[in-house]
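Many introductory courses stop at the sequence. We go one step further.
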Amino acid sequence: MSEINIDNKLTKMFSGIVEGMARVVAIEKDQENIHFTLECPFTSELKIDQSVAHNGVCLTVVKIEGNTYVVTAMLETLRRSNLGCLEVGSLVNVERSMMMNGRLDGHIVQGHVDETAECVALEDAQGSYIYTFKYNYDADMARRGYFTVDKGSVTVNGVSLTVCNPTEDSFQVCIIPYTFENTNFHAIKVGTKVNLEFDIIGKYIARLQALN
């Protein structure tokens, strides 16, 4: 398990507040890279070289044509995220990078996916939904801040969420109907692989403690 540095976009940040869903309309393999062609509600507002988070992965817009745009994922990204599982027709959560004068409605998200997790349980909570996700626990990475804490923040498929009932290698999140309908959470079933980004503040605190 390791943090992904996508396209060296270290200065770009996101909030985990999904703007909409993009639909994959074409997938082209180019040696070890994959070019994804997508369409989304704000395609007309995009520019070449703009950063957009796709299921929480920061990717660069490399081409715009009509109502579609293209982003490229390299092999390391495909290995460490669920982008390699995408098919034509798949829905992807998308968010443009934050404006510095905007509100931080979610939490600080880098767009660097740490690892994937699997949905192991889904419960209907009288209108809302409780998802349980399980990820690979690594003691060394946990000491470096790669874990969840109760009521802390975690990003799942690019969505900023509050952690409930964390264990060593799992946690739950509660999804309200609006989020269920307006993100690809409605497509997540038991067995679905999702992208995780642990809280950057927790990583920094763990690093500072390790230096003392």
